[in-house]
């Protein structure tokens, strides 16, 4: 995802150099460039620095970190700082996403299934 943002940033910077300052689109592109730079910086902070590929006990497929006692499973991503807890969307957020005032239970079930597949639970 970071690479896609960097490509978009490069494209915006290229087109902006061809514009005049008086062009109304210049300000929009300037704002988009600023936002993309901030988003890239934040995303790079959240990239994992390593992934667990081996364990001390291959029979169980996990290892414990001595200092924290945290259990690490195969495939877990390791970060330089704690990641924010991902919370399920509220019914209001789901309705806003689908552009409706209230959501049908089937919409909620659909969203909850996607959240569960990505490890987001209540």
Structural commentary:
The chain has 122 residues and is mainly alpha-helical. It has 3 domains: 2-46; 49-80, no CATH class; 85-122, no CATH class. The protein has 4 helices and 4 strands; from the N terminus they run ααββββαα. It is flat and about 50 Å long. The chain starts with a helix and ends in a 5-residue tail after the last helix.
What percent of residues adopt helix (DSSP H or I)?
Answer: 40-55%
- Placed side by side, the strands forming the largest sheet appear as 1-4
Strand content: 5-15%
The biggest sheet, with number of strands, parallel, antiparallel or mixed sense and barrel status, is:
2 strands, antiparallel
* Class by alpha and beta content: mainly alpha
Mean of residue pLDDT values: 76
> How would you sum up the global shape?
flat
The number of E-state strands comes to: 4
Radius of gyration: 21 Å
* Number of helical segments with 4 or more residues: 4
Q: What's the number of structural domains?
A: 3
Run of helices and strands: HHEEEEHH
Give the distance, in angstroms, between the N- and C-terminal Cα atoms. 26 Å
Unreliable spans:
none
């Amino acid at each position: 995802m970071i690479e896609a943002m960097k490509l978009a940033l490069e494209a915006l910077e290229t087109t902006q150099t061809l514009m005049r300052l008086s062009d109304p689109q210049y300000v929009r592109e300037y704002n988009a460039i600023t936002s993309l730079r901030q988003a890239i910086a934040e995303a790079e902070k959240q990239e994992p620095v390593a992934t667990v590929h081996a364990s001390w006990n291959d029979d169980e497929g996990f290892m414990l970190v001595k200092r924290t006692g945290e259990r690490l499973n195969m495939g877990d991503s390791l970060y330089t700082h704690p990641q924010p807890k991902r919370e399920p969307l509220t019914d209001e957020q789901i309705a806003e996403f689908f552009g409706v005032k209230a959501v049908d239970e089937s919409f909620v079930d659909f969203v909850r299934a996607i959240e569960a597949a990505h490890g987001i639970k209540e």
